[in-house]
Structures are given as structure tokens and as C-alpha cells.
């Protein structure tokens, strides 16, 4: 392992299986793709590297990333979501702060929704509601009563 890169084993075309003590990745068509991630990389760089290394179509699918994260109690692991620069740094630091020599990164995909560019009246933009798991009632939207 180079001091400036972290070895990451990416699993895709499958799904995460959480057991009592571990996190595994399963699927008949699951694929393993190794990456060497520069330690100073930003989250968006990781996303770009994954799209270029895998056969996942960036226009049709968004990535959902979880790494295998060790718990302090015993030999147990849990999925740890990677969604920004901070969570990515925490993932990459596992190699320097634990006995882990390479990161296991589990990739799942979600369908990219069509984005509406503007809200109409008091309606919630469907892109925000569908992609960020926000219920319409969370917005307190209603009809506009102002002058037309």
C-alpha cells in the first residue's frame, strides 16, 4: 500500500446483507472492483472514480455507498453510509487507525428521478420529495392566497 493512496474494494451489482455480527454483500451477479483512492480525495472524486470503473450508468442511477465499519465491541461490523467529504475521510482513516488494511465499500444503486425545475403553486418539487425521503406534509405547503 502506498502512503498516499488507500486500497478500496468496491462491491456492486448486489445488495448489502447485515448479519448479527457482520456486513456482507451478496448477489448472483455481484462484481468486485479494486480502487486506489488518493487520501486527499473529495467525495465527488470518489463518485467519479466509481462510475468510470464500473458499468453503472451515471445518467440513470445514483450511487448509495456504505463501507464495512468496525465496532469497538468484539469482532463486529456495521454498514457506515458515505455521502460527503467528512464521512469519506472517516472511511479512509480506518486503514490508519484500525487493523483494517483495505476498505470494503458496498455500492447499491437507486433510479435517478426526473427533476422538475420549478414548483407550481404550493406543490412540492417531486425530485426533492422522492429523492430525499421527505413527506409532502413536511413542507406545510398549501394554495397561494396572494393577488394574481
Global Rg: 19 Å
The overall strand count is 7
Low-confidence stretches at least 5 residues in length (pLDDT < 50)? 118-148
The coarse silhouette is globular
Keywords:
5-stranded mixed β-sheet; two-stranded antiparallel ribbon; 148 residues; alpha+beta
Structure description:
The chain has 148 residues and is α+β, with helices and mostly antiparallel strands. It is 20% helix and 33% strand. It has 3 helices and 7 strands. The strands form 2 sheets. A 5-stranded mixed β-sheet has the order 4-1-7-5-6, covered by helices on one side. The protein has a two-stranded antiparallel sheet with strand order 2-3. It is globular and about 45 Å long. It starts with a strand and ends in a 17-residue tail after the last helix. 16% of the residues are buried. Mean pLDDT is 80; it is low at 118-148.
Care to give the gist of this entry?
With 148 residues, the chain is α+β, with helices and mostly antiparallel strands.
Secondary-structure blueprint:
Blueprint: E1 5-12, E2 15-18, E3 23-26, E4 31-38, H1 43-53, E5 61-70, E6 77-82, H2 85-97, E7 103-111, H3 126-131
Parallel strand pairs: 1-7
Antiparallel strand pairs: 1-4, 2-3, 5-6, 5-7
Amino acid at each position: 500500500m502506498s502512503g498516499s493512496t488507500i486500497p478500496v474494494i468496491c462491491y456492486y451489482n448486489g445488495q448489502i446483507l447485515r448479519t448479527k455480527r457482520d456486513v456482507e454483500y451478496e448477489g448472483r451477479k455481484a462484481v468486485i472492483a479494486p480502487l486506489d483512492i488518493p487520501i486527499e480525495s473529495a467525495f465527488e472524486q470518489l463518485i467519479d472514480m466509481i462510475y468510470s470503473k464500473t458499468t453503472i450508468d451515471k445518467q440513470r442511477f445514483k450511487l448509495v455507498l456504505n463501507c464495512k465499519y468496525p465496532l469497538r465491541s468484539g469482532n463486529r461490523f456495521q454498514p457506515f453510509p458515505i455521502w460527503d467529504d467528512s464521512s469519506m475521510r472517516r472511511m479512509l482513516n480506518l486503514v490508519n487507525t484500525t487493523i483494517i488494511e483495505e476498505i470494503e465499500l458496498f455500492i447499491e444503486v437507486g433510479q435517478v428521478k426526473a427533476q422538475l425545475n420549478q414548483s407550481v403553486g404550493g406543490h412540492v418539487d417531486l425530485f426533492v420529495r422522492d429523492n430525499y425521503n421527505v413527506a409532502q406534509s413536511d413542507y406545510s405547503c398549501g394554495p397561494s392566497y396572494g393577488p394574481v
